[in-house]
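One chain given next:
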Amino acid sequence: MKKTINYITENKNKLESAKSFFEKYNIEIKQKVLPIYEIQSADGIEIATSKAQQAWEIIKEPLFISDSFWTIPSLNGFPGAYMKYMNDWFSPEDFLNLMKDKKDRTIILRNTIVYIDKNNPHIFTNDYYGKILTEKYKGNY
């Protein structure tokens, strides 16, 4: 018997990726778009957990949400949970200027998944490490 889990997302790319991943485990992923409030916090895990708990209160069925956050250690964790606004606020040159005197150019992408069943949150995180360039990338993305 195939298990069904609700994925709370509006993002079609995230949905297709999740469906592809869980297919091999005989798990069906169903998309749900819900009216969820994103709390204001610098803590990405707190934001993701809040969103999952709100979704649970609405549907009371097994579900998960996913969220991603950038952290730059030499900028005290900036931008953290505010990364989705960064493209509106900063140009690539602005980022380079923020980093111009920094020796540590590490940037971390933290992916967070919160799964809830029976109102019990399970939190999973995965970090990807990279380096911020010293000049604007001139190639194609």
